[in-house]
């Protein structure tokens, strides 16, 4: 493999999980985070040791989307690694930031592993978090082929499946399959906040599944959604219109529109590919 | 126990699962269905034998909601059992039907097990379908105490937890925790129908969970929703309004309303009681 030394910048759930996976493959992993406690905890969990400026084969930037460009510019200025990638859930904005900040775009491979949990922080990390999951890579025309190959090795070492996709196409895709579903789950869950205890006592697995991802961190999700606002808004408008029409049909007593929505739901649900890997959620 | 002989009318998923649970407790189970193939298959699965008019201690009416009153009237006319209960997902309409048809309401205990699967029919039945799940019972002022006790024994024999609740309160509750969530899942799933393959290829466990119950039978769900239309419409209107407001906030760039929705979602999700029993969905 092309990665003997890796630098993980941002030792939250995703960064620490990748670090653990790389450690399991014998890679030397250096850890960095603005939060010294997070680095120490990740280190104690066996994810690697604190970075002291060593040069790495690859730097994995696992910070919130709006900080990726800035962090990339700093790391490249220090010559921290030969190849750089990130894990942000949106891709167009970080790439635009990197261009604006004058980053070297030949050594940067924008990435996004489709994996996550409701819990965050290094304590929630798992070496198998990415096992069997898609990991989007969004190389640009200027991306160096060698940099892409090294990043593909990272994905393989984490047990994930690399999916190469244009950055704009990626952002539209995750609006549909991840970001809008998160807010749909939030809206359904929010309606429970005023429900009485008798009602909640009748809740079953269906409700738990529909609303599970709504437990995610609101501030993290605000940042993700802010970076992909228009594609997400488009999906939500369609869902809201379908639900308003269903409510109207229910009030009128003519349920043909409701039946149509139920049928379209069956068709759409059937398009989701089979289960990948572990039991927990994507972000 | 008070149940030595039970009659199961309607050998679909729910009826056959209850029959299997009762057989596991040594109860003699008679099976009846308008579909002779369904009765034969349920019998072959060990759920009991075809009913030939024997009198039972309890008759479990497991037919679609709009047929409950009619079937109850027929069975009572034949003197099929001492006690009658049903499993319809809505309760006010079947009770009104029973009253309208002049049924004996002292021996009828309206019921609803909060359990189900996306698959239907006797082949999908499982003896442990109700294990640990809530099973709503909606006795009326006229309900005989003995009939309620016998029905509670049925619930206990199926491994479920009896929850006594007023019929109207039940219908509002399941609108919130089961029927509206179903249509929310359908609307999210419907938006995938036109998604491209790249987008679907990035789908993860979160999307699968949010949309899982949307795979349910559209015609069965149309009947359930028709019987609980106004309470479901009320919940859907609130969810649709929250989603439309979130879309509008995303378009405007002022994400405070989105953050508020995310926070309310966390609060609402936290109100759902812990997991009951098996891995599959309620209906």
TrEMBL record, chains A, B:
Lineage: superkingdom = Bacteria
Name the Enzyme Commission number(s) assigned to this protein. Answer: 1.3.1.12
Tell me where in this chain the Prephenate/arogenate dehydrogenase domain is found.
4-280
Quote the Pfam families the UniProt record gives. PDH_C, PDH_N
Q: What keywords would UniProt list here? A: Oxidoreductase
Q: Which residues form the signal peptide?
A: none
Which BP terms does GO give this entry?
A: tyrosine biosynthetic process
The record's InterPro entries line, in alphabetical order, gives: 6-PGluconate_DH-like_C_sf, NAD(P)-bd_dom_sf, PDH_C, PDH_N, Preph/Arog_dehydrog, Prephen_DH
- List the GO molecular function terms: NAD+ binding; prephenate dehydrogenase (NAD+) activity; prephenate dehydrogenase (NADP+) activity
- NCBIfam families, per the entry: PRK06545.2-4
The family assignment reads: Belongs to the prephenate/arogenate dehydrogenase family.
Task: Give the protein's recorded name.
Answer: Prephenate dehydrogenase
State the species of origin. Answer: Amycolatopsis umgeniensis
The top of its lineage is:
Bacteria, Bacillati, Actinomycetota, Actinomycetes, Pseudonocardiales
């Amino acid at each position: 493999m092309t990665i003997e030394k890796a630098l993980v910048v941002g030792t939250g759930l995703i960064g620490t999980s990748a670090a653990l996976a790389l450690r399991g493959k014998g890679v030397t992993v250096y850890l960095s985070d603005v939060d010294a406690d997070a680095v120490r905890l990740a280190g104690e969990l066996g994810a690697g040791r604190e970075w002291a400026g060593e040069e790495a084969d690859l730097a994995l930037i696992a910070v919130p989307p709006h900080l990726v460009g800035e962090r990339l510019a700093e790391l490249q200025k220090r010559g921290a690694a030969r190849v750089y990638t990130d894990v942000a859930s949106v891709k167009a904005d970080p790439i635009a930031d990197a261009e604006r900040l004058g980053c070297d775009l030949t050594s940067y491979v924008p990435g996004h592993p489709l994996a996550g949990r409701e819990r965050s922080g290094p304590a929630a990390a798992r070496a198998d978090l990415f096992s069997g999951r898609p990991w989007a890579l969004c190389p640009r025309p200027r991306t160096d082929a060698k940099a892409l190959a090294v990043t593909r090795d990272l994905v393989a070492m984490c047990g994930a499946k690399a999916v190469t996709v244009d950055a704009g196409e990626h952002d539209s895709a995750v609006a549909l399959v991840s970001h809008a579903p998160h807010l749909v789950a939030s809206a359904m869950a929010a309606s429970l906040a005023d429900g009485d205890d008798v009602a909640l006592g009748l809740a079953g697995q269906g409700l738990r599944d529909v609303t599970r991802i709504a437990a995610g961190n609101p501030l993290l999700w605000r940042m993700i959604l802010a970076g992909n606002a228009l594609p997400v808004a488009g999906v939500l408008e369609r869902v809201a219109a379908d639900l308003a029409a269903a409510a109207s049909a229910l009030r009128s007593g003519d349920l043909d529109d409701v039946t149509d929505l139920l049928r379209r739901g069956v068709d759409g649900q059937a398009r989701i590919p089979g289960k990948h890997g572990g039991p927990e959620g994507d972000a």
